[in-house]
Automatic annotation (TrEMBL):
GO terms for molecular function: NADH dehydrogenase (ubiquinone) activity; oxidoreductase activity. SUPFAM superfamilies: Nqo5-like. Residues 30-148 form the NADH:ubiquinone oxidoreductase 30kDa subunit domain. This is NADH-ubiquinone oxidoreductase chain C.
């Protein structure tokens, strides 16, 4: 683990509404959603985080900012990971897309949109990737009724 690199990243990202802390060998950064794209660009271009690992969300139904959108990045040169986390509300669950920086984000953002309903501003293709067209709701939200029946749709030929 390269703690010196993570410490430099932490110092560079601290401030402007961002909070960064090292825990269990992972740098975790909480940031405002408006700072997401610039922060990811700094990670990629200045610190060599060249691999976008995943994006997911965490549902906190009782919280005003109901969802945390969580991103993980990896540096193949330095073998370290960084986690970014930003909060969004239920009425406006939107963050910037990372497709301009990482092409693989297009598919991962579609999955997160399927499961949680998070919208990614700038991702032109948020069609369902795991669910079928016509599926109603977002099954990983905590208020999704697990016994809900879905409409039947014709199999595409």
């Amino acid at each position: 683990m390269n703690t010196e690199l993570l410490e430099r990243v932490r110092e560079r990202l601290a401030g402007e509404g961002r909070e960064a802390a090292l825990a269990h060998g992972l740098l975790a950064v909480q940031l405002p959603r408006d700072a997401l794209l610039d922060t990811v660009r700094v990670l990629k271009e200045s610190f060599g985080f060249d691999l976008f690992l995943d994006v997911t969300a965490v549902d906190w139904p009782e919280r005003e900012a109901r969802f945390d959108v969580v991103f993980h990045f990896y540096s193949t040169r330095d073998h370290v990971r960084v986690r970014l986390k930003t909060a969004v509300t239920e009425v406006d669950p939107e963050v910037d897309s990372l497709v301009p920086l990482y092409g693989s984000a297009a598919f991962m953002e579609r999955e997160c949109h399927d499961m949680y309903g998070i919208r990614f501003r700038g991702n032109a293709d948020l069609r369902p990737i795991l669910l079928y067209e016509g599926f109603e709701g977002h099954p990983l939200r905590k208020d999704y009724p697990k016994d809900r029946e879905q409409p039947l749709v014709r199999y595409r030929e």
